[in-house]
Specification:
Largest sheet: 6 strands, mixed
CATH superfamily of the largest domain: P-loop containing nucleotide triphosphate hydrolases
Oligomer: single chain
Order of helices and strands: EEEHEEHHHEHEHEEHEEEHEH
GO molecular function: ATP binding; ATP hydrolysis activity
Structural class: alpha/beta
Protein name: ABC transporter ATP-binding protein
Strand order of the largest sheet: 5-6-7-3-8-9
Pfam family, one: DrrA1-3_C
CATH topology of the largest domain: Rossmann fold
Distance between the termini: 35 Å
CATH architecture of the largest domain: 3-Layer(aba) Sandwich
Shape: globular
Number of domains: 2
CATH class of the largest domain: Alpha Beta
Keywords: ATP-binding, Nucleotide-binding, Transport
Radius of gyration: 23 Å
Bound molecules: adenosine-5'-triphosphate
Number of strands: 13
Organism: Savagea serpentis
Strand content: 25-35%
Length: 299
């Protein structure tokens, strides 16, 4: 196990920000941390990096306690983006790379590579404050990647990026994963987590509500969606036993069910009423799971 978070609790005064968190991440795995605002994601990252000390529990990476300050193998994209606005991009990135243990020559080479890869070589000699917010974000991402870390902690890496840049960053992160790096990132975008992560956790109020592989999380939810497209009104079917929720759509309706057999009964009942144009059983989306789990935790 590369990264082990074992029964970790963090309190600020009497307030519990992270409550008995358990996460295990294998090397070469992409792990998604999902959670409502204030769920404890950033606090968790800071504890992993040794920037905050847990009140209870242990965190180890490759069997040892982590110190972000001294380990050259860790890359961190903090939530609060902290570049020096007056400094030129090049000076800034070389300075940050040197803090991560790189020599100037290697830093310059890595800088050229990453500015080219993220299609912003023209900003090399600009001051950070002259760049747009999204391009500043790319510079900060480069700062977290350029020393080729083996453990990457990314706090909301995609926020503020346009779709083209999101794809660029996804591809870069996947390359790191394919090279054996362990990656942990937080996001409010379910689709990014669904697409990228082998494993995930959903947190609310410091507690881990759900965790596992995407498949396990979806199966564990115990509900499925049945999508029916038809040209007649399907709303009568909402009251059938086993139908938990019906959401009308332009072409028909989506029924949430908790038992496979109900899908069959829905189809039969729908067919009695008219021709069916489409009938599809779908796994629940991470979005639905998040809304229900986090919504219940708020209640
Ligand atoms: N230094 C601190 N002192 C007191 N409370 C803190 C401190 N840092 C965080 N908290 C509280 O701990 C809780 C968790 O905060 P955290 O930043 O970890 O959440 P988050 O999941 O990253 O949220 P977001 O998605 O909004 O970034 C919040 O209620 C926050 O106010």
């Amino acid at each position: 196990m590369t990264l082990q978070i074992d029964q970790v609790t963090k309190k600020f005064g009497t307030f519990t920000a992270v409550d008995q968190l358990n996460i295990e991440i294998e090397q070469g795995t992409m792990y998604g941390l999902l959670g409502a605002n204030g769920a404890g994601k950033t606090t968790t990252f800071r504890m992993i990096l040794g920037l905050l000390t847990p009140n209870e529990g242990h965190i180890t990476w490759r069997g040892e306690t982590i110190s972000y300050a001294t380990s050259p193998h860790i890359g961190y994209l903090p939530e609060e983006r902290g570049l020096y606005p007056k400094m030129k991009v090049e000076e800034q990135l070389i300075f940050l790379a040197q803090l991560r243990g790189m020599n100037k020559q290697d830093a310059k080479q890595a800088l050229t590579h990453w500015l080219d890869r993220f299609e912003i070589p023209q900003y090399r000699t600009k001051r950070v404050e002259e760049l747009s917010k999204g391009n500043q974000q790319k510079i900060q991402v480069i700062a977290s990647l350029m020393h080729n870390p083996k453990l990457l902690i990314l706090d909301e890496p995609f926020s503020g990026l346009d779709p083209v840049n999101v794809e660029m960053l996804k591809a870069a992160i996947l390359d790191f994963r394919n090279d054996g790096a362990t990656i942990l990132f937080s996001s409010h975008r379910m689709d990014h987590v669904e697409e990228l992560c082998e494993q995930l956790s959903i947190m609310a109020h410091g507690k881990q509500l759900v965790q596992g592989s995407l498949k396990e999380v979806k199966r564990g939810y115990g509900k499925q969606d049945v999508r029916i497209h038809a040209d007649f009104d399907l709303s009568e079917l909402a009251v059938m036993p086993g139908v938990e929720k019906m959401t009308p759509s332009i072409e028909g309706a989506v029924f949430q069910i908790s038992d496979d057999i109900v899908a069959q009964q829905l189809l039969e009942e729908a067919m009695k009423r008219g021709p069916i144009r489409q009938f599809v059983m779908e796994e629940p989306s991470l979005h639905d799971i998040f809304i229900e789990k986090v919504g219940n935790a708020h209640a």
